[in-house]
Every structure is written in C-alpha cells, then in structure tokens.
User: Which sequence fits this backbone?
C-alpha cells in the first residue's frame, strides 16, 4: 500500500423520517451537540443533521439524512447493523441505563462483551445503537462532550465506538478490510445467535474502540431492506486532503469502482461499496464545522456550503422549519 493506514471511525450516516423528533432524541436524550444543520448535498430538499461532541471532532459524528417518506427497515444482511457510542467509564454505562429507563427508551441489559461493558438500545425509529465503556480501552482518543449538554460531562458520549457489519459471507468483506483498507484482524468473540460463527474483530491505526470494525456472518438472514432507522454508510478517517487523493489513485490502481474525490466542504470524501454492497466512505479530518459558524453558535442556523448559497431561498422554501436554538 502506498497510503497511510486509516485512523479509525470518522462518522456514521443514518436515515430518519422525522428531523424534529430526531433532533429532540439525539440532543435532549442522548445529550449530543447538533454541530451542523445542513442539507443532503445529493438531494437539497431534505436535511442533513450532524450530532457530535462539543465541536464535531473527527470520530464523534453521528449524522442523519431526513427522508420524510422512508418506510420501515427490515433488518438483515448486507448492512451496517450496529453503531456504538463511547462513554468514559463503566459508571457511565450504569448512569445511562437509568437515563434510558427515565426516558422510556427501549434497551437491553448491561452485558460484558469483548471485555467491555455495553448497553444496547434503540431510538424512536428502531436505529440499532449501543453504548460502550472505555474504562479499559487503549487506542484512539475520544472527543470532549459539550458542557451545555443535559448529560453531565463525565457521563457524556465521547465519540463513535465499534461499527458492526452483518454479511452473508464474511471472507470477502474481510479481504477488503485487510488487503485494501489496511485493517488488522485482531480477534473474535462468540455470536449471540446460536449456530452462527464468531464475530470477527478488525482494527486500524492506534486501535481501540474508536478504530474497530466488527464483522458478523449470518447465514440465517435475508438482505436488509433499509428505511427509517437504518444506516446509510460508515466513514473512516483520513488525515489530510493530500492523503485522500492518494487513496483515490490507489483504488483506481486496484480497479475498484468508486466515486473519486468528492467535495463536502466540511470534509473531503471518497465513496465505494465493498462486495457485500455496504457503502464505505473515506473522509478527511478537516476542515471541520467552524468555517461558516462560530463554536458558540454551531448548529443553530441552516448552513449551506458556498456552492449552494445562491440557491438558499429555494432550498429553505422546500425544508420544514426546524428550530435548533432551543
């Protein structure tokens, strides 16, 4: 490989049918900060909402495309089947169990998996989420929770944890992770589903919760039908634009179909699908979210990349009002 190893998770982008309720859940219940209220750059009639730590540091973003008529998700294979969110300690996991109960959020019991305390839950649309403790974690550093969040800073979400991929044949995805993206296969742990193979653990860069991918093989599932509450894609971190351009050339050399270089203003991107059909993105750490809003006012107004600014009137006319200053 003539490219540097990926640094870990950058962001996960999912689908919601209700931006207003989505904003309420992820800010008021989960305590994340809305760091950018923008548009889907491929469909400017719908919102793209970015939730993260205090300033949207790379590796902390959970984003949502609003698709108002999105149907029900039928869970299955060929999917990003779990997004985990890091918290600093085991104590925080117990805090969250009480908080989820208080807000009547559907959740499982706390368990220990792969040596870490975890708590699985779902949002109001069935988005599959999990809190994971960094108590014993070593590896990529987490972010910094916003001090104006309704969740105390010591218990706040500090970034994205491991992302789980569920596929009918794990070897072909494993080959992309290791031979193309440079991940290391580190370990495995028993599947929760009887008769299914162990879940395989891959890591990149410094490793740890912010740089792991779990690969689950399931022979008992049909292909997932995505809708509200499903994940659209996962993005992995590339340090600079120069490095991303090397990745563009590298995938070209490998003859892997891909998007080529894509300008997203808040970061630069490259997209491709692995053989099981899951969409991967490589995204740069910068420029970040403070190019068009101050740190104090992140997410309060509709932000448009400069190349959409001349369409602002038409774009705003199509969007449902969403008050993000409360």
Assistant:
């Amino acid at each position: 490989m003539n490219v540097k190893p990926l640094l870990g998770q950058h962001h996960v982008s999912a689908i919601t049918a209700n931006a207003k309720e989505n904003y309420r859940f992820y800010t008021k219940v989960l305590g994340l900060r809305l760091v950018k209220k923008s548009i889907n750059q491929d469909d400017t009639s719908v919102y793209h909402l970015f939730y993260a730590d205090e300033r949207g540091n790379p590796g902390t973003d959970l984003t949502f495309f609003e698709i108002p008529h999105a149907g029900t998700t039928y869970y299955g294979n060929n999917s990003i089947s779990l997004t985990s969110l890091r918290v600093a300690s085991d104590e925080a996991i117990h805090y969250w169990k009480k908080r989820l109960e208080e807000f009547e959020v559907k959740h499982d019991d706390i368990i220990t998996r792969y040596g870490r305390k975890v708590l699985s839950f779902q949002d109001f649309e069935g988005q599959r989420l999990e809190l994971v403790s960094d108590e014993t974690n070593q590896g990529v550093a987490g972010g910094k929770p916003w001090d104006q969040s309704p969740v105390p800073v010591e218990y706040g979400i500090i970034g994205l944890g491991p992302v789980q991929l569920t596929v009918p044949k794990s070897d072909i995805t494993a080959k992309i992770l290791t031979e193309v993206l440079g991940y290391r296969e580190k370990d495995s742990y028993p599947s929760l589903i009887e008769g299914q193979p162990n879940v395989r653990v891959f890591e990149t860069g410094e490793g740890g919760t912010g740089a792991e991918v779990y690969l689950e093989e399931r022979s008992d599932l049909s292909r997932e039908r995505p809708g509200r509450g499903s994940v659209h894609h996962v993005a992995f971190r590339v340090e600079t634009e120069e490095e991303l351009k090397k990745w563009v050339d590298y995938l070209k050399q490998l003859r892997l179909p891909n998007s080529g270089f894509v300008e997203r203003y808040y970061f630069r991107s490259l997209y491709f699908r692995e053989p099981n059909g899951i969409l991967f993105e490589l995204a740069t750490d910068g420029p970040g979210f403070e190019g068009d809003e101050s740190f104090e006012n992140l997410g309060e107004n509709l932000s448009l990349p400069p190349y959409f600014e001349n369409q602002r009137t038409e774009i705003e006319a199509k969007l449902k009002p969403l008050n993000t200053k409360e």
